Amino acid sequence: MKDQISSSPEKLPPALECRDVGRTFMIKRGMFAQKQPLKAVQDINLKINRGDVLAIVGESGCGKTTLAQMLLGLLQPTNGEILLDGQPINSISIKEIATKVQPVFQDPYSSLNPRKTIEQIILLPLIVHKIGTVKDRRERVEKYMRLVGLPKRLVHSYPNQLSGGQRQRVAIARALIMEPKIVVCDEPTSALDVSVQAHILNLLQDLRTKLDLTYAFISHDLAVVEHLADSVAVMYLGRLIEFGKAADIFSNPQHPYTRALLDSVLTPDPSLGLPKITLGKGLPNPLSPPSGCYFHPRCPEATEECHQHTPVLKDTGERLVECHLH
Amino acid sequence: MTVPVVLNVENLSVEITVPAGTLHAVSNLSLKVHQGETLCIVGESGCGKSITSLAIMNLLPSKAKLTADTMSLEGRDLLDIRESEFASLRGDRIGMIFQDPMTSLNPVFRIGEQLEEVYIQHGKGGRKEARERAEFLLEKVGIIAPAERLSQYPHQLSGGLRQRMMIAMTLMCDPAMIIADEPTTALDVTMQAQTLNLLRSLQKECNTGLVLITHDLGIVARMADRVMVMYAGRSVETGTAVEIFEKPTHPYTQGLINCIPVPGRTKPGSHLGSIRGIVPALVGDIEGCMFRNRCDHVSEECYSGEIGLNEISEGRAYRCLLSPEESLRNFKLKGAA
């Protein structure tokens, strides 16, 4: 585990690595207002080892999706660098990135072109990259449809003829047809029903072992994260506040925010009541973040120090925690 | 039971005419909610949960046809009254909280105006009393500086705050019954627990009946006094929360419970239980059990006739041909030791 966080003299570079990655957007509020910086993501340091599942969790607006877009090469970081297989991502062409990293999005209803057939949708990356003959492509589509559990007869159907679960399978097949090593899943099951969610999670597990995939898995459902992830990165207001092995984070969360997140998981146990969570109000405005520790206005354990000084990310070997108290 | 029944619905059916025929959105559904009681209706999308709530509120689209033996609120018959009378009940005796607080508040009116309107419209008092009541309730739902919040517009509030506004608005006239349709689905997990806590404490305080519609089994387990599991427009199992989660009798309920990952119970990385197949189309006349194509214990008899509700005890029933003992023998909690 140690080599996942601190650098190590290992043979292969991690599949993905973020070094001090940040992204600032310039936001204009009102017609005559000055542009203000919005730090969507700040100082992210993390690594995903080959074959691992990294879950990125946090509330909406914490920068999960911005980070995912940077991992996909769709957004350039304004600070720091992202390494893909040890190579800086901005030195690689977007086409080449697409052969290595592919996305699966949240909403299978809006992420598929309604006017294209299933075959055309899954095929498109091959056309863009000029791979194979027409016959090869057909065969490849069939292979991947089988792999994700889509019946062959759907080849010429349109997305509106498919159920939500089937659509998400199409999205997964489209992501896999380029044979990427890394798949970035942005809330892949949150638009689905529970019984369908189970199918998709089982499928993602199977594909991972079959194709030796690495996942960056973005989710707000911690029960799903516990089930799937090897390591967990907790984000709050654009900052990474805790990072470590999933089993450790779930058995012994350190940051008060991580603890609150875990407390808010409602397991289906009727003998337990509702958890009492005292986080108070919602996320502060990211345009004018609080002084000191970003979490202090909501933190039940905040001290004077938390008001004044920004905590540094402490590396305890097993875990990274950004909190004065730990 | 000595606690009075607030909402009583017997044999509610909703049919919608579609080009392909008649769609049986809800079939022979009965439910009872007592004062201060929480009934959770759980099921997947398309099972008729939301149509049921709209039917109770008399807000069904005009294409839908409603039939029922009984539908009464606080002993008052809801089947026989005119729409204008119903309008005076809605918001007054029965309130509704919708899923998305962004689209259920009017963006061009201040929060205060929207809250006061309910109170004034129902003849509870003038603007001044309405304002006082709104401020009082906002404080109740945990909003700091209520007077300032009342003069803001919905877009100035976060999702969690907006949903609290909706709860406050529903409580303006002190209703006997609240229907909440997925009230926390649009909220973050940390806000979810807070909002549910709030809803529950206010409900207990005001002794209101609550119908909570959700697809989240975690919420059901933690909130419900009684549970109704819906599948394909029918109630397939009813019981207390403990009965449903500890002794689920219908194969669908059992399947649902095994579908979800539960920290501490399901082994990380293991396969989750799953229900094969998809929800059947509800158009036309269908005989037999609606779940038969997805069920592992299907037999010849599941294909014909009407599968009735088997009543085990008062308020505990399930719609399956298996005996409760047989059914429970089939059930093994996934990942349980």
Structure commentary:
The complex is a heterodimer of chains A (326) and B (337). Chain A is of the alpha/beta class and 326 residues long. Chain A is built from eleven helices and twelve strands. Chain A has one domain: Rossmann fold. In chain A, helix 4 (118-128) crosses helix 5 and helix 6 (164-176) packs parallel to helix 7. The mean pLDDT of chain B is 90. In chain B, helix 5 (127-140) packs across helix 7 and helix 7 (159-171) runs parallel beside helix 8. Chain B folds into two domains: 5-93 and 173-330, Rossmann fold; 104-172, no CATH class. Chain B is globular. Chain B has helices at residues 49-56, 83-89, 101-104, 111-121, 127-140, 146-150, 159-171, 189-206, 217-223, 241-246, 251-259, 324-330; strands at 5-18, 21-34, 38-42, 64-67, 70-73, 76-77, 94-97, 177-181, 209-214, 226-231, 234-240, 310-313, 316-318. Chain B has an eight-stranded mixed beta sheet with strand order 7-8-9-3-10-11-13-12, sandwiched between helices. In chain B, strands 1, 2, 4, 5 and 6 form a five-stranded antiparallel beta sheet that branches. In chain B, strand 10 (226-231) and strand 11 (234-240) form a beta hairpin. Chain B is of the alpha/beta class. Chains A and B meet through helix 7, helix 8, helix 9 and helix 10 of A and helix 7, helix 8, helix 9, helix 10 and helix 11 of B.
